[in-house]
Design a protein that fits this description.
Helix content: 40-55%
Strand content: 35-45%
Structural class: alpha+beta
Number of helices: 3
Strand order of the largest sheet: 2-3-1-4
Largest sheet: 4 strands, antiparallel
Distance between the termini: 32 Å
Order of helices and strands: EHEEHEH
């Protein structure tokens, strides 16, 4: 199993309930395909670097997961088919990126405490 992280941006016109439902949809797809969700971070409504589909903001979400390589293609196909998703990026993490992600999560958790 490989380590991956995916960041996707949802359209800003959604309510909090609709954003949560969309995130759960993609989490469910990953779990259905046998992936292990390592971490999930909701970054909230952020300003985009440039307008996308005439929108200047979007709801950012990061999901870090372990799974097989063929799952990424299915996940990205689901992103393409969902009109709520305006951008997405999935990357495979090497051992250094995994170590960094663990350290970053620990820092974020310490900062919130």
């Amino acid at each position: 199993m490989n380590n991956y992280e995916t960041v996707f941006i949802l359209t800003p016109v959604l309510s909090d309930a609709q954003v949560e439902e969309a995130v759960q949809k993609f989490e469910g797809l990953l779990k259905e395909k046998g992936c292990e969700i390592v971490a999930k971070e909701k970054w909230g409504l952020k300003k985009l670097a440039y307008p996308i589909q005439l929108k200047k903001n979007g709801f950012y979400t990061l999901i870090e997961f372990k799974g097989e390589g063929d799952v990424v293609a299915e996940l990205e196909l689901a992103f393409k088919r969902d009109e709520r998703v305006i951008r997405y990026l999935t990357t495979k993490l090497d051992k250094h990126a995994v170590d960094y992600a663990v350290t970053r999560r620990a820092k974020v958790k310490a900062a919130k405490a």
